[in-house]
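Thread: "does anyone have the structure for this chain?"

Original post by V.I.:
We have the sequence but no experimental structure in hand. Need at least a predicted one for the grant figures.
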Amino acid sequence: MLTPIMSLHLATVAPAAVLGAYLMLRSKGTPWHRLLGKIYMSLMMITALLSLLIPAAVGPQVLGHFGMIHLLSLLVLYCVPRAYIAAKKHNVTAHKGNMIGVYVGGILVAGLFTLTPGRYLHQLIFG
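Reply from O.Q.:
Generated one for you, tokens below.
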């Protein structure tokens, strides 16, 4: 069943996935990259915070709510501020590493986990 929190989560992660891919493929350091990067970081932070409100539906739970997938939310909540600070300090290597971690962990790996049996997106896509 799709809850309002899940709807908000999907509404932030879907554009973040597209925007993140675009940012990785386009020129870096431009004013456009910086603007879109701030939007992407904001979307990812909101996505991660919202995900913490969604109870784990598959696998073991901690405190009757959190599951392994929530560790990826913590990764995003840790890496996004670090990436922002690194960019402000012109530390391109740290910024790039953190942003790749956010995209791979927060979008790709988390997205694959949402397709496991018992999860809403699995039911939606595979019936």
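V.I.: this helps a lot. The chain has a mean pLDDT of 94.
O.Q.: and Residues 4-126 form one domain.
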